[in-house]
Amino acid sequence: MKNHRRENAKHFVGYVVVRAWVCLLQAVPTKVAMWIADQFAWLAFEYIPSRRRISLENITASFPELRDNPAAAEEVVRGMYRHFLRAMVETLLLPRKFHVHNWRAFLDFYPGQAVLTALQRNRAAMIVTAHYGNWELAGYLLGAMGYQTYAIARVLDNPYLERFVLRFRQSTGQTIIAKKDDFDRLTNVLQNGGKVATLADQDAGQRGLFVPFFGRPASTHKAVALMAIEFDALLLVLGMPRVSRVGRHGLPGPVGLDETYYAVEVEDVIDPRDYADRQDAVKAITERYTAGLERIIRRHPEQYLWLHRRWKHQPKAREKSKPAASSAA
Q: What kind and span of H or E run contains 61?
């Protein structure tokens, strides 16, 4: 009982601290809020060495040309921290700025017309994205534009923060489906032609399906491809990167990526019906959407979350040797 109370107290204190920071960031001018975000980005890079090391290892392994240029690799990681801290602040501030009549001031949907087409059809669809750009805003903005979407998300350990984050995520009509223990609800949505968004770049452990990702085997969940096949769901492979407004449909704006302006970019649309006669359909679909995510990330590598262990698990030695053995035969 005492341990439970102590844990609950820790969660509540953490929640109060977060809410205090949220109130501060919402109270100050936007430029000041962004300056604060930049300072936290600098602190994160300088004083969390374990995550800095993982990020640099992932960057240099994914972009071999950076192995001999540590300064450039560090610049990508610094840019990653800066982007995500700013994206977090933007997400907190946007509800007060964004409404259905001014979305063009924050979002370029032109490259993402395939999303709107799919959302308007009765057929089930899965939006497949990565820890890239500002994935949290995608569902929020689609909901604000009147589209009913669902997103798969992990429940936070802190119940107070979970309620706070859930309120934001569902405030415009998006519905959150828990990553664990909510499978029946997920299947019901897809059976009824619903639209579900999921992050498909997480390590799936030793039992995952190993497919190429930045030149290395990456353990990937089979569930996305399996559900697409079972429920005849289109897969929309997309990213939502921060972009400059300059040169995009004549919109005015400063050069650079400092502003709150994103683009919905659909890289690929995968129809599982095209794989109906293939025995390797699950692997082929998984390889295809993973390759699409890689192409998206390569355009803005500083907007990808390199600090998570995407390549934590690798094929066992026996599995690695199978292709060589079969070719020798």
A: helix 49-62
The helix-helix angle for 159-169 and 2-27 (nearest 10°) equals 40
pTM over 0.85: yes
**Residue 142 forms part of a structural domain:** yes
Domain membership of residue 275 (yes or no) is yes
Surface-to-core class of residue 64, CB atoms within 10 Å of its CB (0-12 exposed, 13-18 middle, 19+ buried): exposed
In DSSP terms, 236 is beta-bridged to 127, 269
Tokens of 256: 């650079």
**Is residue 145 included in any domain, yes or no?**
yes
The Cα 140–Cα 91 span in angstroms is 9
Tokens of 245: 């407004």
Rg (CA), the chain: 21
DSSP state of 48: -
CA-to-CA distance for 210 and 219, rounded, in angstroms? 4
Domain count, the chain: 1
137: containing domain: 2-310
Residue 328 included in any domain: no
What confidence tens digit (pLDDT) does each residue in 180-197 have?
A: 778 889 999 999 999 999
